[in-house]
Amino acid sequence: MIEVGLNHFLIVSTFLFSLGIYGIITRKNAIMVLMGVELILNSANINFIAFARYGNFGLQGDLIALFVIVLAAAEAAIALAIVLNIYKTLATVNIDEVDSLKD
Prior knowledge:
- With 103 residues, the chain is mainly alpha-helical.
- The chain has a single domain (6-98), classed as Helix Hairpins, CATH 1.10.287.
- The protein contains 3 helices and no strands.
- It has helices spanning 6-26, 30-54, 60-90.
- The longest helix has 31 residues, at 60-90.
- The chain starts with 5 loop residues before the first helix and ends in a 13-residue tail after the last helix.
């Protein structure tokens, strides 16, 4: 039977972080970029929880992960409000087409 250790969590976290970076770099749609940011935040949470469990840091990692979850929820709400406002104004959510905000 395979025992799940710290390395397994780090591999999953690295995979999620890589997918998040790939999503941010390659996508033009603002919603997809926000999903990439959420993947990066989730990979950080996995690291915090894994190191809290295997590093004997007590509840510090759990509390930081909870703070990151609250931060991600606030970021998602504000970012979606901005994206909806951009869509209402410009009728697009493509990042490269939203350059009239400079004026």
